[in-house]
User: What shape does this take?
Amino acid sequence: MTKDNKDKINFEKFIQGMVDVFYPPACPICKRPRPIVNGIRLNMCKPCRKKAPILVEPICFKCGKKLDNTEDEYCKDCREYAHIYIRSFSAFEYTDSLRKSISEFKYKNKKEFGIVYAREMCNALEAQIKLINPDVLIAVPISKEKMKTRGYNQAQIIADEMGKILGIPVDTELVYRIKNTTPMKNLDKANRIENLKNAFQVTKNVVRYKKVMIVDDIYTTGATIDAIALELRKFGIECYGAFISIGKGF
Ligand SMILES: [Zn+2]
Ligand SMILES: [Zn+2]
Assistant: This one.
């Protein structure tokens, strides 16, 4: 590292330190300043961890949802419906506290919460992601209208931070959203497939990848990641998923 670079990093650290003193980064659950332990600022306070626990096994071998029964390999949804993506992982249990926090991250400009969640996702899912070894991370794109009103894509914030931590490239020009997917809950199989069609478009540049990991905040029914996986499969590309949390689904 050159001296200039070192000076630049030290300066950035210094500025960050000053910002931290006057605007201490908030815990995404209770919004109070995140505690410092042994000189390191924690991502969340200890009591808040209990309100947003990390998902532990048994989890569904396909979608990563928490299973009630240790004997099962798949959840009910994945037993009844063949998803198009290969496998998906989520970091957190879907609790009320987490749901509220993610909603603030998405709709109340709390971008810093996304950074915390991305770090937590890397901690919780690093082993699985390393095993898959994806060529690229891709944030689920949002529509132009949503981008206009919200000003940012929450999934992109997570993908960028995860890419930085894990050293995996992030591609922002690969997948485009054409229409919004509707929840699949009340659709039969034929309609589900119809619903996924043409929701997303991928650019020809996608051929340089073999394994793609899709990143977003919440996995609900898997409709969105399946819609992207459907497009990627046309090019023989495997699609994986990484989410902050996974809802109850069906
Ligand atoms: Zn807290
Ligand atoms: Zn499942």
Observations:
- Residues 27, 29-30, 32, 44-45, 48 surround zinc ion (ligand 1) (CB under 6 Å).
- The chain has a mean pLDDT of 90.
- Residues 111-132 form the longest helix (22 residues).
